[in-house]
Design goal:
2 domains; about 80% helix; globular
């Protein structure tokens, strides 16, 4: 039976369970790595602007491959796509576990990304066609609880592993689990799919890859090369031109690889805009908090992971509650409340000090995660609910693509702000120190002063980056005020009086 295209009377719980386990492993791998970034920086002797490529490079591959998932979901069975995705992820994990230089580790992450790029849109599409609109929020919430268990245990588990073992053990830990999940999928997934006469537009794939890839690469390079580098603005320009050509081609072709006409549905367009903006702000916490607590505060990896645990648990426990509230009240009140909390707490993160208490960090992060838990799934589900069923593959692919692009742009922007502002603050602090020189300071005193200036400058750079993230979150809050409860729109093909596909309807297919 074709679970990717037809609604079933009884949800395919077996397929959903296997997909959820695979997605859980992918999520767990990402949360394990966040706490490890400072250790990787030290061991492989790379800077923050370089190590961020383990995150942005992952998103780069996702941004290139996810646009093809709408085609893949329509063309191939759930079983085949899952096995390919999980196989690629497992291979990447094995390679990462033996990496001793940064380029190899980065390449392994990109192989992992090629698998996870297929996994999440596939899971979301199966869920959308498996549950009616009135039960979709609750279903998403329950499965969200399972998925959010990964961020809950990931940082703490990562901190414990790094404190006792080499960071490569993070990948050695995931590898046997990934192999077992792959075998479970091989033996248990039995769904079949009728042959579909659909072909991939290779020129569209080329334009999409250059477009999304150019934008992601350009923004990701800005942190290390600067915005005035030809490599940065050149790739952004090429990406923008290619993406424009890609969009125009999709609007003209009868069977688009990624259907941009879904943006004519206003709630989907609004939800995509909000989740993009929230993703830009969300990555600030994932990237900046570990750097602050470990590099500036000297907090151990285990304690850093424990610090993130209450926030992740809050997000996990809120997921089914948020799902039920969404079914009852809709997405607007949840999104506005959640974004107000997110904006306020992100602002307080821009006021960090050298001696900010551990308890303050734990509570503030937990409240911030509470706010974010009320935004992402309700807003995204509300937008997808407005689409006709046959647009679900395009809707999930579009959302995942735009979220990857927004995450990469947000990460690059915030790292750039942190880097440039750190340099500015360092120059100012050094200049002030020279105005009041100590009489013939010793070499030890000079070294201590330089280290103190470096720490203070980085702290202020992180605070400035969090302030920019606050402004980004405020934009999402304003957009959330325009959310309305979605009702599924009529499929234009089914709405044809003659029952035949017109040229316009074919163009929208």
């Amino acid at each position: 039976m074709d679970y990717s295209m037809q609604k079933t009377d009884r949800p395919p719980y077996g397929i959903l369970a296997v997909l959820m386990i695979g997605a859980f492993i992918a999520f767990l791998n990402n949360t394990l790595l966040n706490i490890a970034l400072p250790s990787i920086m030290k061991d492989l002797e790379v800077e923050a602007s370089t190590v961020q490529w383990l995150t942005t490079g992952f998103m780069l591959v996702n941004g290139i491959l996810i646009p093809t998932t709408a085609f893949l979901i329509q063309k191939y069975s759930v079983r085949r796509l899952f096995l390919v995705a999980m196989g690629l992820f497992t291979i990447g994990t094995i390679i990462a576990g033996v990496a001793h230089i940064f380029p190899v580790l980065l390449a392994a992450r990109m192989v992992q990304a090629s698998g996870s790029a297929i996994m999440m849109p596939l899971l979301m599409n199966v869920m959308l066609v498996s549950f009616p609109i009135e039960k979709r929020g609750t279903a998403m919430g329950i499965f969200g609880l399972i998925l959010m268990a990964a961020p809950a245990i990931g940082p703490t588990l990562s901190g414990w592993i790094i404190e006792h073992y080499d960071w490569r053990m993070l990948f050695h830990f995931v590898t046997p689990i990934a192999v077992v999940v792959l075998l479970i999928g091989f033996f248990l997934l039995k769904d079949k799919k009728e042959r579909v006469d659909i072909h991939l537009d290779l020129f569209s794939l080329l334009l999409s890859s250059v477009g999304f890839g150019g934008l992601l690469y350009g923004f990701s390079s800005a942190g290390s090369k600067g915005w005035d580098s030809p490599q940065v603005y050149g790739t952004i320009l090429v990406g923008a031109v290619s993406l424009t050509a890609f969009i125009l081609r999709q609007l003209k072709t009868e069977r688009p690889m990624l259907n941009f006409r879904i943006f004519k549905y206003p709630m989907f367009a609004l939800s995509s805009s909000i989740t993009m903006v929230v993703n830009m702000a969300l990555f600030s916490g994932m990237l900046l908090i570990p750097i602050y607590v470990q590099t500036i505060r000297g907090i151990s990896p285990l304690d850093a992971g424990l610090m993130m645990l209450p926030g992740a648990l809050t997000m996990a426990l809120m997921s089914p509650i948020t799902g039920r509230l969404f079914d009852k009240f809709g997405g607007r009140i949840l999104a506005v409340t959640g974004l107000a909390i997110t904006t306020i707490t992100t602002y307080y993160f821009s006021k960090l000090a050298i001696d900010t208490s551990y308890t303050h960090l734990v509570v503030l992060n937990a409240i911030r995660m509470f706010g974010i838990s009320m935004v992402m799934m309700p807003v995204s589900t509300n937008g997808l609910n407005q689409l006709p069923a046959r647009f679900y593959p395009h809707g999930t692919a579009m959302n995942n693509t735009l979220n990857q692009v927004a995450g990469a742009i947000g990460t690059a922007l915030l790292v750039t702000v942190m880097t440039t502002r750190t340099e500015t603050h360092a120059s100012e602090l050094a200049a002030n120190a020279m105005k009041h020189p100590t009489v013939q300071p010793s070499d030890a005193a000079i070294a201590g002063m330089k280290q103190e200036i470096a720490m203070k400058a980085m702290l202020e750079g992180i605070n400035d980056a969090f302030f920019v993230a606050t402004l980004i979150a405020a934009v999402a809050l304003i957009l959330a005020l325009f959310i309305k409860r979605s009702k599924q729109a009529e499929d234009p093909l089914k709405g044809s009086p003659s029952g035949k596909k017109t040229g316009q309807q074919l163009a929208e297919n």
